[in-house]
Amino acid sequence: MSFDEALENKRLFMLDYHDLLLPYVNKVRELDDSTLYASRTLFFLNDDSTLRPVAIELTRPQDVNRPQ
Predict the structure, then answer these.
(1) Please, are residues 11 and 2 in contact by the beta-carbon 8 Å criterion?
(2) Per the confidence metrics, is the pTM higher than 0.85?
(3) Which sequence ranges are marked TM in the entry (predicted)?
(4) Are 53 and 15 in contact (CB under 8 A)?
């Protein structure tokens, strides 16, 4: 099934925590030896009604005062 077909058949779903978590990511990154990522995940709905992750985006702001 193509991307366009999956989209047309309403079989793609997105879980988007990026904007919600990004302020907390910055706060957690201020702590020593810790990190946190803000995420967006794209899922495909299988025929058996389970969701399969297709793509995951992890975002962590760069901090010039801290090594990556």
Answers:
(1) no
(2) no
(3) none
(4) no
Nearest to 22 by CA among 66, 63, 59, 67: 59
Looking up tokens 């047309």, which residue turns up? 8
6-36 tens-digit pLDDT: 999 999 999 988 888 878 877 888 888 887 7
Instruction: State residue 49 phi and psi, 5-degree precision.
Output: 70, 20
Q: Residue 42's beta-bridge partner residues?
A: 14, 55
